[in-house]
Amino acid sequence: MKTFIVASLLCCIVVIQAQSQDCKCYSHYDGKCNSGGGVGQPCQCTLQIGPDTRPADCEKLIPKCLLMKKESLGTKAGRRVRPAGALIDNDGLYNPDCEDNGSFKARQCNGTEMCWCVNSAGVRRTEKADKASKTCPELVRTFWVIVQMKRNNTDAVSIQDLETAIRKVITERYRLPAKYIKKVEFEENLIYVDLMQNSTEKVPGEVDIADVGYYMEKDIKGDSIIASTSPFTIPVNGKNFLVQEPLIMYIDEKPHELSMKRLTAGVIAVIVVVVVAIVAGIIVLVLTRRKRGKYEKAEMKEMNEVQKELNS
Ligand SMILES: *[C@@H]1O[C@H](CO)[C@@H](O)[C@H](O)[C@H]1NC(C)=O
Ligand SMILES: *[C@@H]1O[C@H](CO)[C@@H](O)[C@H](O)[C@H]1NC(C)=O
User: Fold this and answer.
1) Atom of ligand 1 nearest to the CA of 242
2) 174 and 193 in contact (C-beta within 8 Å)?
3) Contact 107, 138 (CB under 8 A)
4) Atom 14 of ligand 1, residue of closest alpha carbon
5) What's the start-to-end Cα distance of the chain, in Å?
6) pLDDT digits over 28-60, tens only?
7) Please, what is the Cα angle at 295 between 291 and 299, to 5 degrees?
């Protein structure tokens, strides 16, 4: 009898320990999880966003809108409230309005009287206008995210191994289904990853390519959002392949409404292309050029041409 009680106690302790080990927030370093202490209880997690504690799915990437909100409302650790008027040197960061499911509201005002429309990646796609006059009838989907990065690794590695490693990071670390990684491309010291997921393909609840882009950007900058127990590495031949200087580009399903002249390089690290028909043309061009092994920054060139056309 005694042995039985001891054994069952031990068993319970082991189960509880195993659970509390599993019940951790993977997708945010600041997420808090709790299994309620009970055996068989689900692991429930929350994330502090400014003054609010929100329920969070810690097995899936946290939507970019919530991350930006958290970032704009607090310091990295999220404990201290930023003093009024304090600026941070991070182009494109504002305090967004999010839907309950974590997606961006189509119209954003950043708490001011000037508003603008954003795409599903939260990037501004119209001019700013008076709050009263600015309406945004729908949230336009960003169906193509290009992640550009520089290799800071002079080791000779096989392109095949590197591509496999990068695809593995995206499917395992960010949990994006492999079918959305359309292409991984190498050009001198630059690496391009094309993520494509249109509105007909996207299943509700599935991780969004815009969220993957945001997590990748932070990871490459060494400012990871994922818990520190899972550091960002691209293992190739048993060594961590180092990358730096991420640049994320967003292409929407509908043409944006920005005046191209104001899209000055360096200020806006974001390019939203103009006409869906032209986009289709670009894809064909890029793909055929890439097939011929002559990639030569085709996108950027094409986008410049598009800009010229618009300006003329
Ligand atoms: C590349 O990485 C090394 C560390 O491994 C760092 O010292 C160096 O500054 C990096 N190069 C550039 C251009 O940032
Ligand atoms: C979405 O992508 C799928 C697969 O690439 C394609 O068959 C479909 O036509 C696309 N839908 C739209 C609306 O572009």
Assistant:
1) 2
2) no
3) no
4) 152
5) 90
6) 999 999 887 666 788 899 999 988 999 999 999
7) 115
